[in-house]
Task: inverse folding
């Protein structure tokens, strides 16, 4: 059966997308970072009395999304205390970019980034390790 050229190219593109699978840990971390970013936006709106620029709100959300990306990378499996420490350090490093862009004025978002890093790391651990436990005999 002959497949028309346009449909064939779409089929090849879809096949390549299925080959390029995104790890579950990365998906979970990105979603968690995006959701926590929304909580950050709400917190910033309340803290600043709804008098904050939209670009700062977007950059705060985007910072949390990037935190999810960095934490979601395939890191080595480790114990929960080391895992939480890694999440805190990565949260500190990623949040420092936003903190410095505000002229070192938004310390609350900076400190929340440390806690959010720990939360993202823990959620990613819970979702991926449950799958690992099911595979083991």
Result:
């Amino acid at each position: 059966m002959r497949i028309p050229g346009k449909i064939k190219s779409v089929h090849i593109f879809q096949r390549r997308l299925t080959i390029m699978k995104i790890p579950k840990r990365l998906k979970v971390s990105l979603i968690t970072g995006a959701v926590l970013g929304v909580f950050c936006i709400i917190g910033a709106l309340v803290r600043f009395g709804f008098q904050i620029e939209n670009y700062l709100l977007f950059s705060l959300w985007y910072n949390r999304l990037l935190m999810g990306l960095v934490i979601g990378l395939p890191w080595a499996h480790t114990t929960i205390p080391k895992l939480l420490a890694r999440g805190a350090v990565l949260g500190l490093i990623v949040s420092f970019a936003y903190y410095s862009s505000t002229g070192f004025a938004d310390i609350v978002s900076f400190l929340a980034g440390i806690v959010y890093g720990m939360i993202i790391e823990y959620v990613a651990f819970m979702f991926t390790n449950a799958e690992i436990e099911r595979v083991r005999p």
